[in-house]
Amino acid sequence: MGVKESDDIVLWAKEIVQNDENAQIVLHGISMGAATVVMTTAKHPQNVVAAVEDCGYTSAYDMFTNQLDVIFGLPEFPIMTCVDIVSGIKTGVKVSDAAPIKSVPGIKVPIMFIHGTADKHLLADFAH
Q: What is the pLDDT of residues 12-30, one digit of tens each?
């Protein structure tokens, strides 16, 4: 859900800078890629000068909780609690760790957020 992938992008930025120390990197992602871009940008990878976040989620946990209710009419507890625990055990990353909204305050470069009111999965506006 973007947590581990954000570490990969930091390494790719480092690789780019090793080949071109003057590189100016702009990150762009859509959906899960957008969430990954937000979490990556907050880690201050080398030479990243801007980012574009297109229709990412604010929190994977909240998104899945919402979909459990909308699609299946199921409550958050105990399903999401179990999913969070099992994902942490199986992958080393809990679903609740994929919360790009928590990364926003740490971003130091310009970032453009693209979202629309027609997005049925939009849980929270990053501006709020």
A: 999 999 999 999 999 999 9
19-69 per-position pLDDT tens digit:
999 999 999 999 999 999 999 999 999 999 999 999 999 999 999 999 999
Structure tokens that stand for 12 in this block: 């790719």
What is the Cα–Cα distance from 17 to 112, expressed in whole angstroms? 23
> What are the residues whose beta carbons fall under 8 Å from the beta carbon of 33, sequence distance 6 or more?
2, 56
Q: How far, in Å, CA of 40 to CA of 81, rounded? A: 26
What structural domains does the chain harbor?
A: 3-114 (3.40.50.1820)
Reduced to 3 states (helix: H, G, I; strand: E, B; else coil), residue 6 is helix
Give just the sign of the alpha carbon dihedral 44, 119, 121, 128: positive
CB 55 within 8 A of CB 115: yes
- The pTM (predicted TM-score) of the whole model is 0.89
